Amino acid sequence: MRAKLAVYWTGSCGGCDVSFLELGPGLLDVLSQVEIVFWPALVDAKRQDLERLPPRSIDITLVNGVLRTEENAEMVALLREKSRFLGAYGACAHLGGVPALANQGNGILEAVFGPGFRPAPPFPEAPEDTPPDLLPEALPLDEVVPVDFVVPGCPPPAGLIARFFEAALSGGLQPGQVFAEEKALCEECPRVREERRISRVLRPHEVLPDPEKCLLDQGMVCLGPVTRGGCEASCPKAGMPCTGCLGPTPKAGDPALALLSALASLVRAGEEGEAAFPEENRILDGLVDPIGTLYKYAFAKYGRPLRRLARRREEVRA
Amino acid sequence: MSEFEPKVVAFLCRWCASAGADLAGTSRLPYPPNAIPIRVNCSGRVEPQWVVEALKAGADGVLIGGCHPGDCHYVAGNYKTRRRVYLLRKVLAELGIESERVRLEWISATEGARFAQVMAEFVAALKRLGPLHGNGGAR
Ligand code: SF4
Ligand code: SF4
Ligand code: FES
Predict the structure, then answer these.
(1) Global confidence as pTM
(2) What sections of chain A are H helices per DSSP?
(3) Closest residue of B to A285, CA-based?
(4) Is A221 in the pocket of ligand 1 (CB under 6 A)?
(5) What value does the mean pLDDT take over residues A94-112?
(6) A235 lines ligand 2 (CB under 6 A)
(7) Considering A9, A150, A249, B101, which has the largest number of Cβ atoms within 10 A of its Cβ?
(8) Ligand 3 centroid to residue B72 C-alpha, Å
(9) Residues in A lying within 8 Å of B, measured between beta carbons
(10) Which of these, B21, B15, B31, lies nearest to B117 by C-alpha position?
């Protein structure tokens, strides 16, 4: 019997839905073993169709995207009820992803639409259709419903998608499974680590990196030491630092703070000592936009609690 | 109505700052009793994640006390910590948390008076900033 599959997108760029094509011919094998019961990007189906399904009648549901609106939250709750296994697919559902950097700001709508922005007054009578309200914060999937497994990545790399379907279609899905390595990305990166000293912190556009040497050693902010392996280090191989899309290793904890710690350990302005402090600071100032760089995907999961504390105080003062 | 009393977590290195705090105590120097001291072998052992954990768990400020430059028992632990704290304070500021809530101070084993003074200054600064959590237990 074919496994019943659902794929749903919430606040997503669409890349996750496209990523299945990375399986190449392998996709045909997968499709021959599943029955698609709900997948808005591929087949026409409405919320009512989903509502009509009996509870736990979908074998596997993959949700991609951050939860940004009330409707997102309602839909994943509905999918949870209808599914035996429900997983976060991609960095946004897993950790909040890039769109969850919105949690940094207060008054995001005012920032986008200008100081005079006001929400429209409510309609005198209930209109037939209105856009859903925004949630107060952009959230990863597991903040709203229990999540059984994670296929991480932005988007998930082909090898990990294949690994996931192999397990799922042979009945070998384990609760809590994350389809990536527990070891750090550096372990699978071919770049050579030797000079563990940094005398500058550079952004990708500021340097043409040496093809062989570790990017972190060359002053680029590479999240390899704190990120799960599983993508075969595809970004460092192409000369770009890892931005952490597979999420932190269990050992790293908060990826931004863990990398900040590693980076600070490597920075040197000549001989260490009081005389070097100003120059060390100047080097560390090369880390512009620390939140966007270090928490690129994981802000909703790790940075948000502190941001929330700060925001509450701002509200109390206002 | 009682005044807001800031909660402070103080990570003190065993060889200098913690010995300095002990000296302040045995010398019976008065200083505000707001800190929960945690002795670590070296300030270089203090992970930024511990500092943030303390803030999340209810502290209004975190003090890290280490040996003076050149005196670290492990040679360079305090230099590493200085760079970490520099970056951590930047991250906190971007999150909207006042960077003054995390303070790094050099305190030697003979500087009991300096420890008392640092505590007094820090607690005063935190009172000016106000509580990080709710109303800080003030009634
Ligand atoms: S380039 Fe990045 S992933 Fe590769 S070894 Fe260096 S830090 Fe690790
Ligand atoms: S190198 Fe890093 S950012 Fe690039 S795909 Fe792998 S985990 Fe994601
Ligand atoms: S032992 Fe005191 S700072 Fe290292």
Answers:
(1) 0.93
(2) 15-19, 26-33, 47-52, 70-82, 91-95, 108-113, 158-169, 234-237, 255-266, 277-284, 290-294, 304-317
(3) B87
(4) no
(5) 85
(6) yes
(7) A150
(8) 4
(9) 104, 253-254, 256-258, 260-261, 263-265, 267, 272-274, 277, 280-281, 284, 287, 290-291, 294, 303, 305-307, 309-311, 313-314
(10) B31
DSSP assignment, residue A18? H
- Both tokens of A143, joined, read 């903040």
Angle of the B77-95 helix axis to the A304-317 helix axis, nearest 10 = 50
Q: Could you tell me the two tokens for B16?
A: 């200098």
Q: How far apart are CA B42 and CA B17, in angstroms?
A: 9
CB contact under 8 A, B96 and A310: yes
Q: What is the CATH number of domain A3-178?
A: 3.40.50.700
| Stretch B119-129: mean pLDDT | 97
How do strand A67-69 and strand A34-38 relate by DSSP bridges? unpaired
> What is the residue whose two structure tokens read 């690994």?
A163
Per DSSP, the residues of A111-170 read HHH-TT--PPPPPSS--S--PPPEEEEEE-GGGTS---EEE-SSS--HHHHHHHHHHHHT
Query: Which ipTM was obtained for this model?
Result: 0.94
Asked if residue B139 has pLDDT above 50, the reply is no
Architecture per CATH, B10-128 = 3-Layer(aba) Sandwich (3.40)
Distance CA A294, CA A283 (A): 17
* Ligand 2 atom at minimal distance to the Cα of residue A233: 1
CB-based contact A273 B69, cutoff 8 Å: yes
Q: Tell me, what amino acid is at A128?
A: E
In angstroms, rounded to a whole number, what is the distance separating the alpha carbons of residues A99 and A273?
Answer: 41
Q: What is the pLDDT of residue B135?
A: 63
Residue ranges per structural domain of chain A = 3-178, 185-317
